[in-house]
Amino acid sequence: MEEKILQIIEEIINPKLLEHDGWIEFDKIVDNKLCIKFRGACSGCGANQATLDDIIKPEILNGVEEITDVLIADYVSEELIDLARSILGGKK
């Protein structure tokens, strides 16, 4: 399943988004829901929800029957938190 998702992202979705200097990355799958991250110009773009609804969801949901939804990952990774802590001297 993950391989099929990555293929759709790399061959169908990202070429469209790269026309606007952005792309998406696979984050994880939780309870048959795909979490993705917007990157490049897509990161923080006001059209993220429209891009998700009009481009990303249809491609993924039609191409991978096990996936029931596609969500935007909107959390801060532990790696980034650890980096911030190291910069701030380990303060929490």
Brief rundown of the structure:
This protein is of the alpha+beta class.
Structure description:
- The protein is of the alpha+beta class.
- It has a single domain (2-87), classed as GMP Synthetase, Chain A, domain 3, CATH 3.30.300.130.
- It has helices at residues 2-18, 48-63, 78-87; strands at 22-30, 33-40, 69-72.
- The chain has a 3-stranded mixed β-sheet with strand order 1-2-3, covered by helices on one side.
- It starts with a helix and ends in a 5-residue tail after the last helix.
- The mean pLDDT is 92.
Instruction: Give the termini distance in whole angstroms.
Output: 38 Å
Number of helices: 3
Give unreliable regions as ranges. none
What is the total number of structural domains?
Answer: 1
Task: Determine the strand fraction and express it as a percent band.
Answer: 15-25%
SSE sequence, one letter per element: HEEHEH
Domain NIF system FeS cluster assembly NifU C-terminal: 6-70
Protein name: Fe-S cluster biogenesis protein NfuA, 4Fe-4S-binding domain
Function: May be involved in the formation or repair of [Fe-S] clusters present in iron-sulfur proteins.
GO molecular function: iron ion binding; iron-sulfur cluster binding
